[in-house]
Design a protein that fits this description.
This protein is mainly alpha-helical and 96 residues long. Helix content is 58%, strand content 0%. The chain has two domains: 20-49; 50-96, no CATH class. Helix 2 (54-62) runs antiparallel to helix 3.
Length: 96
């Protein structure tokens, strides 16, 4: 027998608890993907233009450092980058 949804009084198929759980999990997964995309395409590029991160980004580009590498080596450029990062955090640029 066909059921009607109580909110809309329109015919809708009866959804089992397993199907509702699947829909909720898919919605949560899509929300996570949307948040990740927001950070990659909106927040990240805007953050690169901020007063705090701009000196580090310029230093990385000038010295041709691959910032996507997730390991540290005893290379002189990494030491300089670390000093620059610490100084940028301690003494951020100010507007006069």
């Amino acid at each position: 027998m066909a059921k009607t949804c109580p909110q809309t009084m329109v015919w809708c198929p009866a959804l089992s608890a397993k199907t509702v759980d699947l829909i909720k999990r898919l919605a949560a997964f899509m929300a996570c993907i949307a948040v990740i995309a927001l950070f990659i395409f909106v927040i990240g590029p805007r953050g690169e233009q901020s007063e705090l991160l701009r000196p580090m980004a310029e230093f990385i580009e000038e010295h041709d450092i691959n910032a996507n590498v997730y390991f540290y080596t005893e290379v002189e450029e990494f030491s300089e980058a670390n000093i620059n990062m610490v100084n940028s955090m301690a003494y951020p640029p100010r507007k006069f």
